Amino acid sequence: MVIDTRKCVGCMDCVLACKAENKVPEGYCRDWIVTETTGRFPDLRLEIRSERCNHCDRPPCVMNCPTGAIHVDVGGIVLVDNERCTGCKNCMVACPYAVGFINPTTNCSDKCTFCAHRIRKGLKPACVSVCPTKCMAFGDKDDPDSEVSRLLAGRPWKVLKPEAGTSPTVYYLT
Ligand code: SF4
Ligand code: SF4
């Protein structure tokens, strides 16, 4: 997923779309908006970002799950298998990004799935599909002709907490 921080206006449409699409329980969310001010007055910069699970290529959540419930699925998406999850929270503790929660309905670890159920049907994740400024793109970064590859080739970008060594696959255009 590629997110353009210069286009995001913080409207939270992505958050609401995710909650509706994935029936996220009240009081919880699988994505959220962060606003961050950097620089020194008067040279300040405000960045607005839509954040979620980074579907890391080297995910400590997966490495620390004692039951193998949280796993890297097809296409690199990190998913939780509710049949195997015991709700022990090891994955949540291991995640450097503090994503995830125990769903009070399922008693299982819950987080962004990149809307895997929609992707399997050829649709985009709900957040991507509703964004009014089209600040998000989703696709195959190993395909040099994909929209995400073109965006990453044409603009400077960053990932969150690169020092954690998890190789996140949510990229932020800066
Ligand atoms: Fe796991 Fe956290 Fe990375 Fe998501 S962001 S794959 S929960 S380590
Ligand atoms: Fe694995 Fe579930 Fe425990 Fe997370 S809460 S570590 S997914 S068993």
What is the secondary structure topology, with strand pairs?
Layout: E1 2-4, H1 13-22, E2 31-40, E3 43-52, H2 60-63, E4 70-72, E5 78-80, H3 90-94, E6 101-102, E7 109-110, H4 116-119, H5 126-130, E8 136-137, H6 147-154, E9 157-158, E10 171-173
Parallel strand pairs: 1-10
Antiparallel strand pairs: 1-8, 2-3, 4-5, 6-7, 9-10
The structure holds iron/sulfur cluster (2 copies).
Please describe what this structure looks like.
There is one protein chain. This protein has a single domain, classed as Alpha-Beta Plaits. It has a four-stranded mixed β-sheet with strand order 8-1-10-9. A two-stranded antiparallel ribbon has the order 2-3. Strands 4-5 form a two-stranded antiparallel ribbon. The relative contact order is 0.24. The chain contains six helices and ten strands. Strand 4 and strand 5 form a beta hairpin. 21% of the residues lie in helices and 23% in strands. The longest helix has 10 residues. The chain is α+β, with helices and mostly antiparallel strands and 174 residues long. It is globular. The chain binds iron/sulfur cluster (SF4) (2 copies).
Total helical elements = 6
Could you say which structural class the secondary elements and strand pairing correspond to?
Answer: alpha+beta
Largest sheet: 4 strands, mixed
The CATH C-level class name: Alpha Beta
Mean pLDDT: 97
Which CATH architecture would you pick?
Answer: 2-Layer Sandwich
For the biggest β-sheet, the strand order reads 8-1-10-9
- Distinct small-molecule ligands in the complex: iron/sulfur cluster
Overall geometry comes to globular
How many strand segments? 10
Oligomeric state, counting identical vs distinct chains: single chain
Low-confidence spans: none
- Provide the β-strand percentage band: 15-25%
Distance between the termini: 14 Å
